[in-house]
Write a structure and sequence with these properties.
Distance between the termini: 28 Å
Strand order of the largest sheet: 3-2-1-4-5
Helix content: 40-55%
Structural class: alpha/beta
Radius of gyration: 16 Å
CATH architecture: 3-Layer(aba) Sandwich
Strand content: 15-25%
Number of helices: 6
Order of helices and strands: HEHEHEHEHEH
Number of domains: 1
CATH superfamily: HUPs
């Protein structure tokens, strides 16, 4: 397992002829996810892309019509609200930033979208909830274990410092 540290000068040291980076950021509205987005903004150069992804939970179909439709709309409204927060954080980014929402378990969604977008890295924050989750949040822990590309986990201390 490789450990990646936040190098604030990655974009500045990169060879100008190098290809454009695509960074995928998991965002749930928490301070930790805001720190992850800020880390992506620091890593990205003006020619790079940042895709901010919010995964919202699947609504149970057992509710039936019309309750299912209403619950789905409520869940999607909340997802849009979270993505508006991400757009505010990313407003001053030099890189191109897109925001999107997808239904499903966060680690699965992030891995799937990273593959579809050809992301170079997945960047997530972690709450660091102690030994129970081995100092990584469950999403970060699952991504580090299963992702097919580098995963940068931004510690909760970065959120506190911001």
């Amino acid at each position: 397992m490789a450990i990646d540290t936040l190098d604030r000068n990655v974009a500045a040291r990169r060879d100008p002829s190098a290809r454009t980076l695509t960074l995928l950021v998991g965002f749930d509205g928490s301070e930790e996810s805001r720190a992850a987005l800020r880390a992506a903004m620091e890593r990205a150069g003006p020619d790079d892309r940042i895709a901010v992804v919010h995964a919202y939970p699947r609504v149970s179909e057992w509710m039936g019509f019309p309750y299912y439709d209403e619950a789905l709309l409520d869940t999607q409204r909340e997802a849009r609200r979270v993505l508006e927060q991400a757009a505010e954080v990313a407003d001053d980014s030099s890189a191109e930033v897109s925001v999107e929402m997808h239904e499903g378990a966060p680690a699965d969604v992030l891995a799937r979208i990273a593959a579809v977008r050809g992301a170079d890295e997945i960047i997530v924050g972690t709450r660091g909830l102690g030994r129970l989750r081995a100092a990584l949040g469950s999403v970060a822990q699952e991504l580090v274990r299963t992702a097919d590309r580098p995963v940068l986990v931004v510690p909760s201390m970065a959120a506190e410092a911001a």
